[in-house]
Amino acid sequence: MDTQITYYENKLAFEMDPSDLFDAFNNGERVIAIDTRKAFGFEAEHIPTAINIPHRDMNEETTKDLDKDFVYVTYCDGIGCNASTKGALNMSRLGFKVKELIGGIEWWKFDGYATEGTKASQTGAKIQCAC
To answer: What's the rounded Cα separation, in Å, for the pair 102 and 38?
Structure first.
């Protein structure tokens, strides 16, 4: 039983689902979404408030202005893409607190949340900041 408990605790420590991310945004938690895809993917559609740092470009220089007090949630297209995993690994190696978004932007949309960009889905629930 202890091995199972440890496994699930670790899984929850390093992953987040779209509902948890949406709630974190709306509750004012210190969380920032990072789209780890190339710029053209981000420009077409991304999670509101997300920043774009492609996993291939993550290094000390490209992350130097990021606040290490935040939790960074990496995401990509979805379960068929591992750019979010590569981004989470890179960010961890650079000393940031990181979680990976389960299902990427596809599950974000599947759960009914709006996106931004040139191909944005504006019909979903929108992030509201109460601060």
So the answer is: 19
pTM: 0.91
Burial status of residue 108 (CB atoms within 10 A of its CB: 0-12, 13-18, 19 or more) = buried
Region of 130 please: left (phi>0), alpha (psi -120 to 50) or beta. alpha
Q: Are 17 and 92 in contact (CB under 8 A)?
A: no
CA distances from 74 to 2, 9, 13, 40, 70 (A): 29, 19, 14, 17, 13
Is residue 96 a contact partner of residue 68, using CB atoms and an 8 Å limit?
Answer: yes
Mean pLDDT, consecutive 10-residue stretches, the chain (131 aa), reads 94 96 95 98 96 98 97 95 97 98 96 93 66 46
The CA-atom distances, in angstroms, between 99 and each of 59, 117, 121 are: 18, 23, 24
